[in-house]
Amino acid sequence: MRKFTILLALMLFIGLQVANAQRTITGTVTSSDDGAAIPGATILVKGTAVGAITDVDGKYSLSVPKDKNTILVSYVGMKTQEIELGADNVVNVVLQPSVQELEGIVVTALGVTREKKALGYSVQDVKGGSLQNDGTANVINSLSGRVAGVQVTSASGNMAGSSRILIRGINSISGNNQPLFVIDGTIIDNSDFNSVNTARGAGGIDYGNMAQDINADDVASISVLKGANAAALYGSRAANGVILITTKKGEQKKGKQIGIEFNTGLSFEQVSYLPKYQYDYGGGNGGLDATWEVKYYNDNSGYYKVPGTDPDGNAYQSFDLGMDYGIDESFGPAYSTTAGKYLENYGIDLSGTSYANQPIYYRPYYSFDSWDTDNYGKSIEWKTPTHDVKDFFKTGIGWTNNVALTGGGENAQVRLGLGTYNSSGYMPNSYLDRYTVNLSASANLTKDLRAFADVNYISTKTKGRAETGYGDINPIERFNQWGQRQLDMYDAKVYSNPDGSQRSWNRTSMDDATPAYSNNPYWDRYMNYQNDKRDRYYGNVGVSWQITSWLRAQGKMNIDNYVFRTEERVAIGSASQSYYREQVRTNSELNAEFLFLVDKTFAKDWRLNATFGGNMMDRNYKLVGGSTIGGLLIPELYTLSNSLTNVATDYKSWKRINSLYGSASLGWKSMLYLDVTLRNDWSSTLPKGKNSYLYPSVSLSWVISELPAVKEAKWLTFAKVRGGFAKVGNDTDPYRTSLTYANFLDDDLYPYHFSPYGLYTLSNTLNNADLKPEMTNSWEIGAELRFLDNRLGLDFTYYSKASLDQIIPVAVSGASGYSFQVLNAGKITNKGYEIFLTAIPVRVKNNFEWTLTANFARNRNQVVELYPGIDNLQLAAGPFNISVNAAVGDEYGQLMGTDFIYDEDGNKVVGDDGRYLQSSVKALGTVLPKYNLGIGNGFKIFGVDLFVLIDIQHGGKFFSTTKMWGTYTGILAASAEDGIRENGVVIDAMVAKYDDNGNVVYNADGTAQVTGVNHTNIDAYTWTTDHYNGPAAQNILDASYVKLREITVSYTIPAKLTGPIHNLKIGLFGRNLATWGTAMSGIDPEQSTSSGNIQGIEGAGLPSTRTFGFNIGFNF
Amino acid sequence: MKKFIKLSLGIFLVFFVMGCTKNFDKINENPNQPAEVTTASLFTSAQKGLCDDIYDEWWAGRQSLLWAQYWVQRNYPSEDRYAIRQNIDNLYWRLIYHDVQDLIEIISLNTDPATKTKAATSGDNTNQIACATILKVWAMQIMADTWGDIPYSQAFKGDDPTNPIPTPKYDKLVDIYAQFYTELAAAVASINEDNGGFTSGDVIFDGDMALWKKFGNSLRLRIAMRISNTDNYAAARALVQEVGVDGFMTSNADNAKFPYIGQTPNNSPLYDAFWTSARNDFTVAKPFINILKGVNDTLNGKINPFFGLIDPRLQLYTRDRPAGSGNYYGIPYGMTEGQTQAYWGKKLAPSYYGTAAYSKTTAPVILNSKYAPVYMEYAEVAFMLSELNNWDQTYYMYGVEASIDHWRDVCTDLEGWSADDVAAFNVVKEAYLAALPPAGEETVLTQKYLAFFNQGYQAWAEYRRTGQPKMLLVPGENTSVDADGNMITFIPLITISTIPWRLTYPQQEYTVNGANVTAAASQIGGDKMTTKLFWELPSGK
User: Fold this and answer.
1) Rounded to an integer, what distance in angstroms lies between the CA atom of residue B460 and that of residue A544?
2) Crossing angle, helix A1020-1029 and helix A961-968, to 10 degrees?
3) Helix, strand, coil tally for chain B in percent (to 5)
4) Which helix (H) or strand (E) holds B125?
5) End-to-end CA distance of chain B
6) DSSP letter, residue A888
7) Rounded Cα distance, A1067 and A452, in Å
8) Is the Cβ–Cβ distance between A244 and A234 less than 8 Å?
9) I need a surface site. Which of A138, A374, A701, A730 has the fewest CB within 10 A?
């Protein structure tokens, strides 16, 4: 690669004139990264065109004119250094890697490296080093806040849950809108196997998305190609942008046989964000006057030694109290209730007894098991638990180790990277182990012929990924939505009895230990866990032939294969029926491509870069799975045959796209660049005659600062304007064009038969034999400006996109006989701008430097049309009271549910019963944010680098199922504030006016007429349960946040102190350290249970975490 | 080097050729699902699907069985108080229309000249069409009675090759009823018993077209009777005239029902609710149990028409507790969550289904894995004929006996009753029949209600037509007395003073079929539960 750079650099310097020499300085340029010499670095005398380039040993020699005494030293991926010349004629320079590269070379589509200034579209880079330091196991999450226009939403955590990345908003109504991931030219699969139920928060395991397999340590750099302009050459799948990852390559180390890099890191993960709970009332739903279950004894064994007569008229000596074990709510008695109050209510005479002012003692659920001699038969105090929800979680630990060997000679270079990542999650009984091997090699077979290969093997083994959402085995749901607040987590740790049965707090009654609704949270973690294993290899092999000095040909095979085996289980003795399910997914994608590349300079000022190529994409996917049906026969034997009946299911899909494409880029005087691309795809998924589609792009870049007149302006370092247009076609999923019948499926999507008859039914989705390809048209303009010797930089882009004829399974009226119809429908537009600002406000020689970067993006989305007669598309229905929609005229992702009724002054309106009135279903706000802003502050204080990243999201809405159920069931603080359980609630609203028939009187504009201020007191239980029964708008929250996303500190110990070890670098990092500005304390808007389009429904997802740790790296 | 040139040229050619897309059709052929299936398998799917959906935990257990006051929920009694779960009705609207779409597909495959020959391998084309039509009308009447105006003339046309309709308009209920009647008349008339019906896949009647004909006629009678308030029985009388009483179901042997296999995954839906999903929030309601027990509603001063008579079905519909004690309890209907909790928490009425006290074998028979939900049965026909003949005593007695026999036979089959058990039961039955008060509006319609147990939608509809049984609780009436002796009143969560007259339209229709549902809402006089359907009890009666 460096050789190529030299070549390029040489070309750039064609035409440079050597001025009269006054003084010759020499020296070596090395990298601070590894101490190695940098060949091809540019040394320029400031204010002149006089320059030199370092040789293969990093040495240079430069003649400096008499009146000049400042040189600029620059190299791709390194920070340009300005050096004042002293008396010494030997000037050795150590270049530092740059975090945000403004100048130089970027990798673009098809892996072609281009001068950034030649590009007519926006590309933004992140260098590998900065990702490696932040301690995230997931490369995708690292991009959060670093790139303008890129919005990352993730369920945090070590356990590789879903991350969703959105570049410039939503393009496709029904697709997943995820960018294409390309590693060293290999397209890798980023599927998300989460079910619709998982995505909409209705329960199910979050398996994350497949791009998480990438080992951050092997990443050299990431280019984000944001627009369709940038990506036209990758075809359809690049319409949402491309994340282009270049991995580290082997290189020849001067004077050494071998280079060894080593990097290790340890990270700790803690739950940082839990909802605000109430601490005053325990489980039950009888409210303040809740009655207790009573167990009478004829002897003195009961806790309360008060003799009397039971309701059946039998005499007793003592008794015990039992609570509402079977209710998974926290609307029980107050902890402050005294036994006296209760016992008297129950008609027990307390005169002369000692219980009057005592707290209540009751029989906890674990006091009924005779084997538990410590607790059997004992009552405990009714009080707030010592070990609350937060004590359920552990500190997750992640340990990363990477070793890389690099070496080679002039003709061949190899890098072998080995990485391990071992982590334990913060949920009990969970771990994720990942092992990666990366081998990249290239060799010149002859002078002109080069062979190369990149091979990656990744093995991931996971246990105990959590269920998310409203599911049966999700402890979070029991903590935040349906549960009892007096439970002590330490008591719950004993989750089973010696006979193997479950010990549930949610027993049916004092005499009946059967779980009513809920499992013990530890039972869910230790008995109902899942595990999975994924083996994946991806990479490419190819040959490259330099036919002439300007023409090169390349043939390449790219492969991405994985086998993903998942196992899910529910043990006998759980609240729901036991089962075992095993699924094996095999995915393989092959891309065979050829490419001709032209790079020719002619007529002095003209330069042509052109490509012509073809690609065949072939994707095969197969799912084979089985599930027990009707429960397990033998406890804890998890095989498919251990089943009353078992059912196998399978699914195959095959898709092929053939493509031919070409591009031409013409440059004039390093000032004007014109890019044109053209591509034609043939897709197997579209009907005959409509399966071929052609799409072009064109862009223009003008480096204004090359104009002689501008060149003289000292304050302006660099200026460029650019603009482009692109069109991208798209196909669809396989098998959407023909009508087929479906198996009759059960809830878990397993087919069954009604013996002896087969059961076939029409599919719920009506396919379409007349589909045509989708098209996205987009254009963008932008400018890149740098001032005052790069002290201030601004990159601005405005873009506008329209996606047409989208292939969507449109939700239609069930009365049509189908739930969905696949249609070419819709037009969706995205307009927005991105600002990328860099500044160096302070720089004190080499001792202190403050670099400020800001990424700002604002996107406006509009669903312009859907289909004749259809003005709303329901993307998903939440499990309760809410749906996510695309409605014509609105922004995508509109949450719809019932709203409050307002009067004409905008006050909320209640009925004469003091409860909120409820509108019909209407739009309650979109899930899309108004803007995203990432602010990075880099400080260099002597040798220490400090980086602080703040990530801001403003606007957008989400529906909080946690708020709804957590308030309903009395778990959250709001259900117990201000003494509402004792005193009730008077809603701050106006009272509706009624006509003689008892109907509310409405104005023409839909507002209600009112009679006055509401004074009706409603009891707390009515108020909290109305969070579910009343307007859905009560649970809509603003999705804004400000997050302290990242702090990293790193220091490279000076070489003279480290002996044979080079570049001993120590880093500390912290991620997601603080969150501010959320609408409801403890409920994180940044929750995602899928990478798909169903967003905006929060509920019982994994809690947010903070991560911190350190890493150490060095090489020999 | 020449080799390499050849190689790259070769690659180039491969790609060039690949521009051809000859095998694309094959690649895009769905290997997972068949493009053709037998109409028999569609028919089984539709029969099972309709039972799965209409007689399950959600659409029955948390809706119709509550509103007919057969059941209450012992925890979370929201639907009891008419706060419905929007997502459930969104779902079941789609499910039931889709079940019926399979029947439409059978009709279409048997009609289309291109497919009818192949379809005939599952049975005579015309008879298949007749069976599918009868079952279609059966299901769609439940839909229409639930909501009122619904899509019908434009429904099921999402896949119409010439004019697909994804957003069908709503028809007036009165027009839909006329259409039901016409379609059924044509279907019954077209039946040729000699040609046989479905050769396979007909779980209800195993292809016996004589039985399908009786079912079709009986369903016509149900439809004609449902509009009695508007035509003073004219249509029903004309039908009896036309068909003759022997043209309807004439005994329990003619009953249309769906026997589940009783093995996972083909269990009866309520079995799956209670035992598989462990959702046992339901128990029998006091108004229903009080009628069976022969006691009056003293809290509201209502007299039980069968006062003093213990119905033999009491022990079949629920179970005494403790077992063998002869004590049967229903939980008061329409209490709040806290009131319900206080009530059963103190064990005043421990008769609820499905806790450890009841095992799979001792639970009432409707929770049996093989329990066969009924589409329509002879007892209903007998009660209708009694009503038509001015509360005829003979048909009334036929009806009561048929219902009791039906449940006795279900128990005999599913619970393994011995001959002695049957004989003992028959003695009780005969005593009960002998003691029954004579036929009259209240006795006939109350008996019809008792026979409809588990057919919640029919019982709810009949209540809305007739106001019977009067023992059912109306909002504002007293349901129970709490521990301190205070009266507990049934106060719904919505503003309504009667049992709901209809269901509000599924919210999803407002997002996917907005214009049409809005038009329908205004056409019926507001999308409210208080809006009356045209055949419902006119005010003042």
Assistant:
1) 78
2) 150
3) 55, 5, 40
4) helix B125-147
5) 101
6) T
7) 34
8) no
9) A374
pTM for the whole structure: 0.83
- Which of A503-507, A822-826, B269-273, B399-403 shows the lowest mean pLDDT across its residues? A822-826
**Tens digits of per-residue pLDDT, A2-46?**
444 443 333 333 333 333 447 888 888 887 666 667 766 778 887
Q: How far apart are CA A78 and CA A81, in angstroms?
A: 9
CA–CA distance from B186 to each of B182, B210, B243 (Å)?
A: 6, 15, 13
B406 falls within a domain: yes
Q: Given pLDDT bands bounded at 50, 70 and 90, which one contains residue B25?
A: confident
CA pair distance A755, B268, nearest whole angstrom: 14
Beta sheet of A180-183, edge-to-edge order: A123-127, A219-225, A242-247, A180-183, A186-188
CA A58 – CA A410 distance, rounded (Å): 15
The whole-number pLDDT of residue A91 equals 84
Q: Is residue B95 assigned to a domain?
A: no
* ipTM of this complex prediction, to 2 decimal places: 0.88
- Write the pLDDT tens digit of every residue in A1034-1068: 999 999 999 998 898 888 888 778 777 877 888 88
Range of weakest confidence among A128-132, A541-545, B378-382: A128-132
Q: Which residues contact B67 (CB under 8 A, 6 or more apart)?
A: B82, B456, B460, B499, B500
- The token duo for B242 is 């036309």
A658 contacts in chain B (CB < 8 Å): 15, 18-19, 21
Count of CB contacts below 8 A, A vs B?
Answer: 292
Is residue B503 pLDDT above 90, yes or no?
Answer: yes
Q: Are A556 and A539 in contact (CB under 8 A)?
A: no
The pLDDT, as a whole number, for residue A17 is 36
d(CA A594, CA A352): 97
DSSP annotation string for B32-97: SS-S---HHHHHHHHHHHHHHHHTSIIIIIIIIHHHTTSEEESS--SGGGT---HHHHHHHHHHHH
Give the model's pLDDT for residue A1.
Answer: 40
Return the residue in A511, A594, A816 with the most chain B beta carbons within 10 A, the one to mutate for interface testing.
Answer: A816
Tell which A residues from 937 to 976 touch B, by Cβ distance under 8 Å. none
Query: Which chain B residues touch A815 with a CB distance below 8 Å?
Result: 93, 97, 150-151, 154-156, 168, 513
Q: What is the pLDDT of residues A475-524, one digit of tens each?
A: 999 999 999 999 999 999 999 999 989 999 998 888 888 888 899 999 99
Q: Which two tokens stand for residue A245?
A: 């990852």
Give the pLDDT confidence score for residue A108 in this predicted structure.
67
pLDDT at A101: 39
Per-residue pLDDT tens for A577-635? 888 999 999 999 999 988 888 888 887 788 888 888 888 899 999 999 888 887 888 88
Give the pLDDT of residue A255: 57
> Are B346 and A654 inside 8 Å of each other by CB?
no
3-state secondary structure B501-533: CCCCCCHHHHHHCHHHHHHHHHHHCCCCCCCCC
Strands A892-900 and A883-887, by their bridges, are antiparallel
CB contact under 8 A, B200 and A757: yes
Number of domains observed in the structure of chain B? 1
Q: Which residues contact A255 (CB under 8 A, 6 or more apart)?
A: none
CB count, 10 Å around CB of A847? 10
Asked if residue B389 is part of any domain, the answer here is yes
Q: Report the residue from A555, A760, A887 with minimal CB separation from B11.
A: A555
Domain span at residue B379?
Answer: 269-466
What's residue A2's pLDDT?
42
Per-residue model confidence (pLDDT) at position A4:
41
Domain membership flag for residue B288: yes
Distance (Å, whole) CA A322 – CA A311: 16
Separation of alpha carbons A224 and A101, rounded Å? 13
